[in-house]
Write a structure and sequence with these properties.
Number of helices: 7
Largest sheet: 2 strands, antiparallel
Number of strands: 2
Protein name: EF-hand domain-containing protein
Structural class: mainly alpha
CATH topology: Recoverin, domain 1
Oligomer: single chain
Strand content: under 5%
Order of helices and strands: HHHEHHEHH
Radius of gyration: 12 Å
Shape: globular
Number of domains: 1
CATH class: Mainly Alpha
Distance between the termini: 19 Å
CATH architecture: Orthogonal Bundle
């Protein structure tokens, strides 16, 4: 329940940010819900679905402005090559952080 409430608060905060005005709020909501449902045992397919939802501009990279929740909170840790964007393999690192 706490994750659901936190997800909705996050969505409301993101919706008010200028940097995400162009983002589809339904995708942000879906991404927040999917992120809340992930566990260390989640599949690569589930992470790939999350990646697709987060990559709002379809550039095959999740930027810090596209990231939500635990992905945003751990962005610098996940961005192992320090290029200011997460590729799919870097995003998979979120599973290790969920332990």
């Amino acid at each position: 329940m706490k994750k659901v409430v936190a997800s909705f608060i996050l969505i409301a905060a993101l919706a008010s940010c200028n940097s995400v005005k162009n983002m589809d709020t339904s995708k942000v909501s879906d991404a927040a819900s999917m992120l809340a449902s992930l566990s260390p045992n989640s599949t690569v397919q589930q992470v790939a679905s999350l990646f697709k939802l987060l990559d709002a501009n379809n550039d095959n990279s999740v930027s810090s402005t596209e990231a939500v929740g635990a992905v945003a909170e751990n962005f610098d840790t996940l961005d192992t090559n320090n290029n200011a964007g997460l590729d799919l393999s870097e995003l998979q690192g979120i599973l290790a952080l969920l332990k």
